[in-house]
Write a structure and sequence with these properties.
Distance between the termini: 83 Å
Oligomer: single chain
Mean pLDDT: 95
Helix content: 10-25%
Bound molecules: alpha-D-glucopyranuronic acid
Strand content: 25-35%
Number of helices: 8
Low-confidence stretches: 17-23
Largest sheet: 8 strands, parallel, barrel
Shape: globular
Structural class: alpha/beta
Number of strands: 37
Length: 600
Amino acid sequence: MNKIQKVVFCLLIGFSMSMLLNANPLIAQTAMTNVASRHTTSLNGMWPVMIDPTDVGEWRQVWKEPVAVRKTDFFEYSFEGATLLRVPGDFNTQMPELTYLEGTVWYKKAFTCEKKTGKRLFIHFGAVNYVADVYLNGRKTGSHEGGFTPFQFDITDQVKNGENNLVVKVNNKRLKNGIPGVGYDWFNYGGITRDVNLIETNDSYIDDYFIQLKKHSLNEVGAWVKIKGSHLSQQVSILIPELGIHINTMSNNDGLARLQFKSGFKLWSPSSPKLYKVIVQSETDTVTEEIGFRSIETKGPKILLNGKHVFLKGVNIHEENPIKAAKALSDSDALQLLTWAKELGCNLVRLAHYPHNEYMVRMAEKMGIMVWDEIPVYQHIEFSTPGVSGKMSTMLQEMIKRDRNRCGVIIWSLANETYTTTPGRDKALIDISKECRQLDSTRLITTVTCNQGYENNNVNVWDPIFNYYDIISVNEYIGWYAPWQGKPEATTWKLVNYDKPVILSEFGGEALYGSKVGPTDEANSWSEEYQEQIYKDQTEMFKNVPNLAGLCPWILADFRSLSRLQPVYQKGWNRKGLLSDKGEKKKAWFVMKKYYENIK
Ligand code: GCU
């Protein structure tokens, strides 16, 4: 065997050994709830990275960070002197050459740590798009798939005193069996897109809790608290000082404590988004929260908030700050987007099509805006491929665990624009609807369809899946993708025997702000006037929609999508915003705002 063959042979042995060693790396844990109230050390900042478009870092085992010992040693990779990227942040907008990258970027973060007896240490990620492989001190810690939900690893046994080296391989390649799959109409921002924290807890800690009103109740809370660690059976308390509430109980041998209590809550609503300071205590841990109490239910075709009929005046939002043309990730991004929504007259935001960052959900709750949370089960999902429903279930658990105490969240949406004709779809959506009700029976669930018939100016809504959901959500683009087949005010709707609320979860059309080219009554003018007319016609048609309980125009602001190729009007942007990418109000904005003003 000559020298080169020997080198290749050793590398191959090394590679397969490492694959063997890490054959079943730890799958990420669902993250503990309410990280903000924990003992955290932020790892946010500028991280050295290696951009690896040809994906050689894996077989080079870059996470091992070898150092040259012998004079002949050299390594064709290192984080020393490497480019720096901001965390949290998408990598695509931080360097022009990364704009269209769908591939691998290796991130490194060194941190110092002092190991303490009786303490646990976790590494927590708010989200990483899409697959994250995490290494600590040269060894694989674990992996996570899914770009929009938090995850953590318990690194107590892997961390060492002093300097520690964390390496994260991030890959945002689209996967056929991914959630979402390969085709979706938003920008595939890759990277460590949300906060990264070290979390120190006592050996036994409060991992999760649920403190909300029981279904159909305006004053009775059905709560539980989950302890994790070695000492599971403990005294557990919930305190709400403002209401003089101090409830105690013992957790069982699985660490689960159930508590229930009554009180005269000032109920949370858009007009008075009341939140209470809530303290969750165990013998070894204390977590403080701000929680509101409200009931949400349906009664036939109506949606009731705190027992009263409410019409959902919604708008769709992507997790993007159009003015920065980058991923939205901060409190100020959330404030910008939600302030626009409030200005439009909304009492609800549909966070499309994936769980947005926690700042967004908590800010909405504070501002009195109800939230529609959704997992990215989007259009063409390989439902019948082994492992796919498991991924859906994991994303659902991660979303609900993070947001279940947010009273602002009233709807869990489990899919968008899937088709009863797709193999395995019906079973997958039935199964996940049942799982969702088990995880949280207090909120409404929906799934969004767009396979209604539209003939002879009649819309026929039929999808067997709606039998398993509380709300019928329909996307319709009459006036844009589907030209009107008659007068909008004469458009009829038929719901096949569903006495359930209907939400038009998407409608609208495109316009480039200020575009004045060509006759404005032609779609190809991309003019504000054409979009405005679509909204005028739609609001005419709404009178005919049975059980109409809510609306969500598509979309608050223009957003980036590389599938939008029209070189003059789109340039990689979906222009269906009511606002331009600079926050300028298009004519249609005023039609929608006026329509919402008239709904009391
Ligand atoms: C679909 C889809 C959106 C998409 C929109 C559009 O209905 O749900 O994600 O952006 O249509 O075509 O603009």
